[in-house]
Specification:
Layout: E1 19-21, H1 23-29, H2 38-50, E2 60-63, E3 68-70, H3 77-80, E4 98-101, E5 104-107, H4 109-113, E6 121-130, E7 142-143, E8 153-155, E9 160-167, E10 172-179, H5 185-199, E11 212-214, H6 220-226, H7 228-237, H8 253-262, H9 286-291, E12 298-299, E13 323-324, H10 326-334, E14 339-340, E15 345-346, E16 349-350, H11 351-366
Parallel strand pairs: 1-11, 12-13
Antiparallel strand pairs: 2-3, 4-5, 5-8, 6-7, 6-9, 9-10, 14-15, 15-16
Bound molecules: 2-acetamido-2-deoxy-beta-D-glucopyranose (4 copies).
């Protein structure tokens, strides 16, 4: 499905909180190729001249008596030698035979006709990926019973599914994973009630959708070097404000995300590593605050084994947001043989794309009513 990202979110909209961290993807973009050095140098020098490089004329980004942060040129000759061309990841090994259309899971017969199973394709079945609400283990999921066979499309009652397709002789030929946005009655009821109340607040000036997207492990200067199109889109199309001079609190992701989403240093929470069996359910994260003001909330993150609130920690025992796909992500990740390109691709999508599509689908699906979205940040 093609989607359009609206340039401005509507004024009277609610929110889907999405915090998404794309650790692995970023790491791959920085995998180095070992061939050729000299022409690369010229390429980056020439790119420098037209890159969106703000404040190039000032010597300091922050220049006060007590704090001076130099405005370092990301393409300074001293670093050019170490720069490498990024590598594009193409997830084109498999043609997707199934796709999501609203709340239906569909078979793409055009794709089947282009596949080796043109003559022998039979049917598909899906299984819900399920996490009971009373289970506390943050890695738990289970597959429910397979659905009935379908060969055109099927209406979904489950948000997260694995689909298998078979030849007419019953041989398994295809595996894929799909996420659906199905509105939840309890969430809708909470939202319409508390959003109305929120809007009646006389100090309220706007009710925008909010998306937080984090890209982990990338410094500002490397973002300037390697993500020029993204940077240009942010600065020129979205009129982004760059918070120069704001630095990370500490190493690594977790200790920075807690202040960002909870407004406190880790030790003020208070939290420490001895509390690695205590779940994060009871803290007043930003998504909870939006949720109580009538926003639908969503949290999605890639690489579940090293997820921010889960790595060496207890994660969430209850879903922190209205839409939360961790158990889907854990299930999908466990299926090692379906992945290729160093675990970056599944069928035809990058892991990052799968997570972002979930966010976008919530936005699209609820756009006609009200919404917000969000996903990650430099470490
Ligand atoms: C169906 O498959 C064809 C061929 O791969 C592709 O061009 C088309 O976009 C697919 N349609 C959908 C709805 O995914
Ligand atoms: C969770 O609930 C189900 C069904 O209500 C029950 O069968 C199961 O024993 C419960 N599990 C736990 C760990 O409480
Ligand atoms: C789809 O399944 C129905 C029965 O469920 C069958 O009659 C029909 O021939 C199948 N269509 C194709 C294209 O295989
Ligand atoms: C990273 C990047 O944008 N590199 C471009 C720099 O400029 C050369 C020549 O214009 C392009 O070929 C590179 O793709």
């Amino acid at each position: 499905m093609r989607y359009k990202i609206p340039r401005h979110f509507g004024r009277y909209c609610r929110i889907i909180g999405v915090v998404l961290f794309v650790v692995c993807t970023v790491r791959v973009l920085f995998e180095y190729h070992s061939d050729g050095t000299s022409d690369r140098k010229e390429m980056y020098i020439s790119n420098h001249s037209n890159s969106p490089y703000q404040k190039s004329d000032v010597p300091y980004l922050v220049d006060t008596e007590t704090c001076k942060i130099p405005n370092i040129n990301p393409f300074d000759p001293s670093v050019l030698l170490y720069l490498r061309q990024g590598r594009k990841i193409s997830c084109n090994k498999h043609l997707p035979i199934t796709y999501e259309d609203g709340s239906r899971l569909c078979i793409n017969w055009t794709a089947v006709d282009q596949s080796p199973w043109r003559e022998t394709f039979g049917f598909c079945r899906y299984q819900a990926i399920y996490r009971p609400l009373n289970i506390t283990d943050h890695d738990f999921y289970k597959y429910l019973e397979p659905s009935k066979e379908f060969n055109v499309s099927i209406e979904m009652k489950d948000d997260f599914v694995r689909v298998f397709c078979y030849t007419n002789g019953g041989g398994k030929i295809y595996t894929n994973y799909h996420q659906f946005i199905l509105l939840k009655d309890d969430v809708e009821a909470r939202c319409s009630k508390s959003f109305q109340k929120h809007k009646n607040n006389k100090d309220l000036r706007e009710t925008l959708n909010v998306i937080m997207i984090g890209v982990d492990s990338i410094s500002r200067l490397n973002f300037m070097r390697y993500m020029q199109k993204t940077r240009s889109y942010l600065l020129n199309d979205l009129e982004a404000v760059e918070l120069t001079g704001y630095n990370k609190v500490a190493d690594n992701t977790f200790v920075n995300i807690v202040p960002m989403t909870l407004g406190k240093f880790l030790e003020e929470v208070p939290w420490n590593e001895k509390m690695n069996k205590t779940p994060f359910d009871n803290y007043n994260f930003i998504w909870k605050q939006f949720g109580s003001r009538g926003y639908r909330t969503l949290y999605a993150e890639d690489a579940p084994s090293i997820a921010i609130f889960d790595y060496l920690k207890a994660g969430f025992h209850k879903p922190p947001t209205d839409y939360f796909n961790r158990h889907f992500s854990v299930a999908m990740t466990a299926d090692r043989k379906s992945w290729y390109n160093s675990h970056h691709c599944l069928v035809n999508k990058m892991e990052t794309e799968i997570m972002l599509d979930y966010v976008i689908n919530l936005y699209l699906y609820t756009n006609t009513v009200h919404t917000w979205l969000s996903p990650s940040l430099p470490d």
